[in-house]
Design brief:
The protein has 13 helices and 21 strands. It is α+β, with helices and mostly antiparallel strands. Bound molecules: adenosine monophosphate and glycine.
């Protein structure tokens, strides 16, 4: 089978790393990939926005399966496009209707209410109903949670303790702070608890639960400072025991799949459910219609079975014939970023100490460096983004895995390198 992975971050390198080990794989391509994927796949040039360009590459390289990494092409209807022009192509990712679970917070909330899926109490407003929105805010206790309805590159959620701040944010969203994404705003109750990310692969009828993970979103240690795309991840999550995951499956996963079916949404792909554990009960914070980054880096390392076989079965509606095998080892990912990220940072610094990624495919336990914001310049690997690379290590428990990730990271350097040193620290008290 020839496979194309769309995207160019750490998530896509991790997917490529896993798929490259499949016995079913003939040729692997990434568009546009990064220097990390270049060592295990063929990087194709092209803009993921232009589906016709992707189609040309798919036809000329005899590609059988398209795995869509990021959400934007899904929300823009890439599955619908290929369903019309190349129905024989296996596409991993939902159609436009299914992608609305991530593309519209309001749609996702209504979906959860329709299907009795536990989530925070909420209401949606537009600029026409701003006074109702102010009144609703007044009925809530702080912190106030405001969410731009549409995609806002992970920046569309504002949480503040101050009512005046919340009112100001609300009017700024309606005035276009997040462009069109904020024309509608969801205001919801604050859920207090510990977050985790649950991932499923589904063919629309059957589903497979992948290893769960927890990510670290804030730039500063002990979850302080600005939100980022993700500074690290761990899998498994200590509190996600059999009893908790049983509740997730019964109260959230099963009604989500049944809800999609009952609404005529033919969903084939990943669903990433962002959950809050509120006193032992799971509540949905959000749905994403793709894998998470940097969760994928940890999740892929814990899957022992052949992911490409699972994906092909999902595309054929035969996921019930597959069984996932999950490693009992733990995985920890630490992300190294350019100093200044998520605000202003300088690119173009040479990265030293990188191991040779092409040797990774036969390793089970060594740390792996997944590339994200890297580029090649004059034969050298340089920084080219905020999140530069992600180091994922394995261990008998998350603390050993964390130590190993930090040891591997200490060999790597570039000017202004920054990474959080506290990934896993918050989980120590839960593991006593
Ligand atoms: P989202 O983009 O929906 O994932 O929201 C970004 C982050 O905001 C989440 O990962 C949570 O940490 C936080 N968040 C979102 N909604 C809530 C909520 N209702 N209560 C508490 N925290 C929330
Ligand atoms: N790590 C969070 C995300 O991928 O959305």
């Amino acid at each position: 089978m020839n496979v194309l992975i769309l995207g160019s971050g750490g998530r896509e390198h991790a997917l490529a790393w896993k798929i490259s080990q499949s016995k079913e794989l003939d040729k692997l391509f990434c568009m546009s990939g990064n220097p990390g994927t270049a060592s295990i796949a063929t990087n194709l040039s092209g803009d993921t926005k232009y589906f016709a360009q992707i189609e040309t590459q798919i036809r000329s390289n005899n590609i059988n399966m398209l795995v869509v990494g990021p959400e934007v092409p899904l929300v823009d209807g890439i599955r619908d496009y290929f369903g019309a022009v190349m129905p024989e192509l296996m596409v991993i990712g939902p159609d436009k209707k299914g992608a609305a679970l991530e593309g519209s917070k309001d749609f996702a909330k209504e979906f959860m209410i329709r299907h009795n899926i536990p989530t925070a109490r909420y209401k949606s407003f537009t600029s026409d109903t701003i006074h109702d929105a102010y009144r609703f805010l007044g009925t809530l206790k702080p912190p106030y949670v405001l969410k731009a309805d549409g995609l806002a590159a992970g920046k569309g959620v504002v949480i503040t303790d101050d009512l005046k701040d919340a009112e100001r944010e609300l009017s700024e969203m309606f005035e276009g702070k997040f462009d069109d994404a904020g024309h509608k705003v969801v205001i919801e109750e604050f859920l207090s608890g510990i977050e985790l990310s649950v991932f499923i692969l589904t063919d629309g009828v059957h589903y497979m639960i992948l290893p769960e993970a927890k990510d670290y979103k804030r730039i500063g240690e002990h979850d302080t400072g600005l939100n980022t795309g993700g500074m690290g991840s761990v899998s498994p999550v200590p509190f996600a025991d059999k009893s908790f995951m049983g509740k997730v499956e019964e109260r959230i996963i099963k009604p989500t799949i049944a809800g999609l079916r009952s609404e005529g949404i033919d969903y084939c792909g990943f669903i990433f459910i962002g959950l809050m554990n509120c006193g032992g009960d799971p509540y949905v914070i959000e749905y994403n219609v793709r894998m998470g980054d940097p969760e994928t880096e940890s999740v892929m390392r814990r899957i022992d079975s052949d992911l490409l076989c699972h994906l092909a079965a999902a595309a054929k509606g035969e996921l019930d014939k597959e069984t996932i095998r999950i490693s009992s080892s733990s995985a920890v990912t630490v992300v190294a970023v350019s100093g200044g990220y998520p605000e202003h940072y300088i690119k173009g610094f040479q990265i030293s100490g990188l191991p040779d990624c092409s040797k990774y495919s036969d390793t089970k336990s060594l740390p792996v460096v997944f590339h994200a914001g890297t580029a090649m310049k004059d034969g050298k690997t340089v920084t080219s983004g905020g999140r530069v690379l992600a180091v994922t290590a394995m261990g008998d428990n998350i603390f050993e895995a964390g130590e190993s990730a930090y040891k591997a990271l200490s060999e790597i350097n570039f000017e202004n390198i920054y990474y959080r040193k506290d990934i896993t620290d918050d989980l120590k008290s839960l593991c006593k």
